[in-house]
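Archive transcription. Copying these from loose printouts into the bound notebook so they stop getting lost. Printout 1 of 2:
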Amino acid sequence: MQPVIQQVGTARWALALWMTVCCGVLQAAEADAAAAVQRGRALYLAQCSMCHQVTGAGVPGTYPPLAGSDFLRDHRRDSILALLEGLERPITVNGRGYHGRMPPVVLTDAQVADVMTFVLNSWKNPGGQVVAEEVAGLRAKCRFPTYEALAAANAYRPLPKAPEGFRLREVARLTDFATRLASDGRGGPVYALGQEGAVWRVDAAAQKLVPVLLPGEYPDTAPGGFGTLGFTLDAERRLWITMNQRVEGGPLVSNVVSIYRTSPLGVAAKPAKPALWYRTAYPYGIGPYNHGISDIRFGPDGLLYVSSGSRTDGGETGTDPSLGSMGETDLTATIWRLDPKSDAPSIEVIARGIRNAYSLGWDGAGTLFTVSNGPDAHAGEEMDVLVPPGPGSGGAVRHHGFPHQLGLAPAATRWYPHTPPAPAGVDFVLPVANLGPDGWRGTLPGSTFDPHSSPAGLVWLDGSFPESVRNSFAVGRFGNLIGTGSGEDSGFDVLSVRPERRADGTWAARVNTLLSPLARPIDVARVAPGTLYVLEYTRPASFKDQVGWLPGRILELAVLR
């Protein structure tokens, strides 16, 4: 009987070994898929969330949803190809038609696989894993048969011609997407802010960026990712940074907004880890429209001013019970003022009805201006003049119209059926009228800027600049992300905007193109007398280019001496 016992024992040992190997293989596969999801999440936030949103909800009628998508479930091959070569044909997602154009995304085979794996395993999608070999097989037969071919289509464009009296050069190329520049304006160090909290010092001599602050160094952040849109440097050489975080888990999803402040910059120009200075929250925006807090600046009065964007497109209440149905809140579509010397600051709202002021700044006389992005409706983009009440005065706060009055359209214009009725007895402040010759394609005078041109960076050009642009604002226009209605591109430039107050108390401006075309200029900063830096967010200099997104660069526009 001994041989039989030995055979049985050997079989049991072999079965146990086989089961151990199988379990190990399964565990390794599960670990690989989990790692792919994490890598894909980071890539999705950087490359895809601007259109399809952090939540995968998309923009109804414009960008299809990825959350709970029947297209992803039923058209896996086409979904991968959309990343590799773009998508230009109409599709139907969850019963709704979409007729826009999606550019290809410049990612390697492995990165495409990771993004697809993340999406397939998020937002109630069916799950599964895409691997690099599957992507490579599809890429070889598509419009861009290699990663290199697609990357070549996304190469940096030649520099535009510098305006008369200026020189233009490239200062540094970015390895990640950046949203802001900060400087003392007198020739000191210049800093760039990444969209996920990184901070770099610009080394113009070496034409590179030196890491100063990493995303993981922010204390007291809520679980999940965050976005950073506001950035400034104070007289004590401290950096101030605004942050937005989508936080779930309560009765309503929240947008947690925070302001961080570093200790003074040292000799090595590296700050200590930032400390949380202020935090508040409100219900997260309806659909994709959660603009959060963005620009942060010190006024001539030494107080801190913060732009708080809208949480709606045009005042809609929404239908998602997790997001709240109040349209705008008391804190959104406003400009705040805070005391930077306070250890327990409180918000003073100094202006209402400002939809999404990406930037604010003061002219030479100390008057506060903002540039603001309009809704999906084809309303003009605005430059607004703000007259805040005196600090602590409790004076009347002026209303600049959103969502009731948009651009210079008649007050009775209803841009959407859901636009709420205007509050009784409120006289809306009109934006700055464009007197031309540039920045507005319609009949002049018109709204300040073309619809969807997305005015972004804003800086005052003082006496250190030539007479042709002196005493005007340089305004960078990011460029349209949706169709403009006219079929033409909108933005992708830097304008000179010279405002003037008219006899009736309203404002108008002469607008001239300063620099064009540019690859989505998201910020403009004076870094020294007669010298501007222009931050390009990405590389395509046209909405029609329809190629993928890669990080941009920093340009220097300086007066010829």
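Printout 2 of 2:
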Amino acid sequence: MKMLRAALLATALSLPLVAGAYAATPADALVIAQNIDDIVALDPAQAYEFTSGEINTNVYDRLVGYEAEDTTVLAPGLASEWVADDAAKTITFTLRDATFASGNPVRPEDVVFSFNRVITLNLTPAFILTQLGWTPENMADMVSIADGKVVVTYEGDFSSAFVLNVLASRPASIVDEVLVTENAVGEDLGNAWLNTHSAGSGPFVMSDYRPAEIVRLTANETYFRGAPAMKTIIIRHVAEAATQQLLLTSGDVDIAKNLTPDQIASLPADTVKVETFPQAAVHFLSFNQKTESLTPPAVWEAARYLVDYDGMTETFLKGQMEKHQAFWPKGFPGSYDETPFTYDVEKAKQILADAGVETPINVTLDVINSTPFTDIAQSLQAGFAEAGINFEILPGTGAQVITKYRERTHQAMLLYWGPDFMDPHSNAKAFAYNSDNSDATYTATTTWRNAWAVPQELNDKVTAALAEPDQAKRNEDYIEIQKEAQASSPIVIMFQAALTIAMANNVDGYVNGATSDFVYYRLVTKE
């Protein structure tokens, strides 16, 4: 353990020791212990993981966004103002006077380049922007410059309010065209370079990234909202919760993000404080429809009665998750908060028997190899075995599990999902829409990844809700869609996350909104 602590300090910063064995981090540096092995990519045109979103938010700006001061309000970003014309399906943005961390000015050309780049590369999150009707062939017409302003044009039966939410999302981050072009290799538009470097105008610069080891952010002194008080942010990969606890209580880190409820309860109140942040992520169990034994709808229905929702949330998930059984998180307009399913083995057995489903069913269950995921998997294994559904748990790193999920090579999967942008369509499309289930057509949704060919009637309802101009009626439509998906889908939604984070008492100003895209370090101070 001494070697681990020494390695942490050596690779992060030279941290002075104070009286006794207690270490103290510098006043202008924030050191974080966190499991970051889910990172697959950091280029905002490719990044699609939770930790990647957190990094992107702190190094890039967008035209508009939900900012640290109030994560519930859509605010100006690099655009100081905008004018929407719903009839013409255009939004015209006026850029503020800002510079990239490189010193290059933020120009309308950078916005055009950034959006074109996402569409041209066509990597995982590109679908968020392509839903505006953007293609490589029409981008010159869809995003243009007029009188020094950026004119965004969109196609589709939705309002400008929906478009603004899309433009506040991660792939709409604005990158420095000059810097990215200088570091491009072949036709990659700087993709390889941006997966280990940054080229943004945000409050921090990514100055070091070593996979499953460390992310170092350095303050951007020219940030248009003012330079952050923390000159360095160190996010250290520490997978083991017990090690995170030790590093926090010894003063070697300022924040520990992945502690268990028992560890949280045992922290010393004189040096550590605990804050809880409601999260938009929903946690689910899903069944790949490429596995024949998992295709009967009776298996899906029975599964909903084999999850010990209360048993988990009242014990090892207490303070981390609450029972939630619909795809749009509680606390947002359009959520459906009823929880009709309870742990009932006899009912599950009867459902399987009435449908003529033969048991036992043996199935592999992929899970991220860290708490609380492995604990949830073991609870599911025990509960499902009571009805003759036997899980073989296959643990892996976050990146391994997510990659397997995207390739549709799993059988059952225990995972989580956060909205790509704060609009119920984001999750409706992920959990209740799949217009092309073919292997050749990759789609970043849970429906496609589980090979579920969504009934056309449900697809049509999702499309209609997106186009509904009346917001109250639109929210009602999404509630009905959630009810339908909740009743009959191979995706069993179980919980909504609540993130409990422990930090040193002298840390103030840390903001952790409902998604990883709303994690902000620029307001942090240390007394």
